[in-house]
Design brief:
By secondary structure, the chain is of the alpha+beta class. The chain contains two helices and four strands.
Length: 83
């Protein structure tokens, strides 16, 4: 098959923990929280990996990365404030 290569934005990657062999996946949200508009997924480690658990990697400039972190922090802060 050749040498594995990850191309940013093109490759779907499955993440497995080296020591434990567990796969990175997400925990399903409950029906109540999905009706209320909460769509955040919680990352968990699981014994079985699934094809739909793939991650797409992308590159960004330092400024874009910093801006994304600020936006995420602000959203979390405003969500706590509103609650």
């Amino acid at each position: 098959m050749g040498v594995p290569e990850i191309k940013y934005g093109d490759s779907n990657c499955l993440v497995q923990h080296v020591d434990s062999g567990l796969w990175l996946t997400y925990q399903s949200s409950s029906a109540v929280s999905s009706r209320m508009g909460v769509t955040q997924r919680k990352a968990v480690l699981h014994g079985e990996g699934h094809m739909d658990d793939g991650l797409t990697l992308s590159r960004s400039q330092t400024e874009e990365s910093h801006t994304a972190r600020l936006i995420r922090s602000a959203v979390l802060l405003f969500t706590r404030f509103i609650r």
